[in-house]
TrEMBL record:
Residues 113-138 are annotated as: Disordered. This is Cupin domain-containing protein. Gene3D superfamilies: Jelly Rolls (2.60.120.10). Residues 40-98 form the Cupin type-2 domain. It comes from the Bacteria. It comes from Microbacterium alkaliflavum.
């Protein structure tokens, strides 16, 4: 067993995010065969990811605020604290904060050996984001 040193908060890069988004890495692979990464991600109002997919899928647990999530071609879904969102491997999607609320989620994903943790696409446009939620998951 070991206690990890405290890690610095990282501001996520503008190539993959719109608005202010910060990451606190919680866990990453440390031994052979491990693939799981976990991070606490904080989004300012209106902040969001670009379109992306994960080769091993992704699970998000919303812990604070209101999240908006959308799979390519699907509805924009409003997600609240305590709710979990799963995107299967390769599903293109985006997630971010509602226009008037900060949002925090715990992001969990596995990265298959030899692959990138995410395949990043174009930014979500203001028009795509501005459509707002069409489904409330409560």
């Amino acid at each position: 067993m070991k206690v990890e040193s405290e890690r610095q908060t990282i501001k996520n890069p503008p190539e993959w995010f719109t608005g202010d988004v910060w990451l606190d890495l919680v866990a990453s692979p440390q031994d052979p065969g491990q693939r799981m990464s976990v991070g606490v991600v904080r989004f300012a109002p209106c902040a969001r990811t670009a379109w992306h997919s994960h080769p091993g899928g992704q699970t998000l647990l919303v812990t604070e605020g209101v999240a908006l999530v959308q799979a390519r071609g699907g509805e924009v879904i409003e997600v609240h604290p305590g709710q979990t969102v799963y995107t299967p491997p390769g599903e293109e999607h985006w997630h971010g904060a509602a226009p008037d609320r900060f949002m925090t989620h715990i992001a969990m994903y596995e990265t298959p050996d030899g692959e990138s943790s995410a395949d990043w696409g174009a930014h979500v446009t203001d028009e795509e984001y501005g459509r707002g939620p069409t489904v409330t998951s409560r």
